[in-house]
Write a structure and sequence with these properties.
single chain; 151 residues; mainly alpha; Helix Hairpins
Length: 151
């Protein structure tokens, strides 16, 4: 019986490469999203610190120069927070796009793998059938041989 050869093997190899590349891109997008979320959290922490400094400064006494400086820093952090939120949203959208692309590539690879599995099953059954036919033929030839005379 001939050795198994899957005719779509080159397609399976290409799809495996595409799936691997999509997985790597998805991992990079997840990493970028996590970094953007961490930056957003750091910005919010700095904003909370400035808010508490502004509030505390008003309770102890009012110094105009110090309050103006803190307010300018607070406004700068507010703008930074908006930018960090935009970056985080963009990173999340990119992550979702990469996830969708990865899942599609994975499904495409699974289709070819299932086809190969079915083809291997068909080949295996055919091999067993061929082997059984050979055994039957061997048994038939042996049966037809004249029995040796025993004395």
């Amino acid at each position: 019986m001939k050795r198994f050869r899957f005719s779509l093997r080159p397609v399976a190899i290409l799809r495996a490469h595409r799936e691997q590349r999509a997985r790597e891109q998805f991992a990079a997008a997840v990493h970028a999203f996590v970094a953007a979320e961490e930056e957003l959290q750091r910005t919010r922490t700095r904003m909370q610190a400035l808010e508490s400094a502004l509030f505390t400064g008003r309770q102890n006494g009012f110094r105009a120069a110090e309050a103006a400086s803190l307010l300018a820093d607070y406004r700068h952090e507010c703008a930074g927070e908006v930018e960090a939120e935009r970056t985080s949203i963009a990173a999340r959208e990119e992550m979702e796009r990469r996830r969708t692309a990865y899942l599609e590539a994975h499904r495409n690879l699974e289709v070819v793998e299932r086809l190969e599995e079915k083809a291997r099953g068909v080949h295996y059954r055919e091999m067993l059938r061929h082997e059984q036919a050979e055994f039957d033929e061997f048994a038939g030839h042996r049966r037809l041989k004249p029995a040796s005379l025993s004395v």
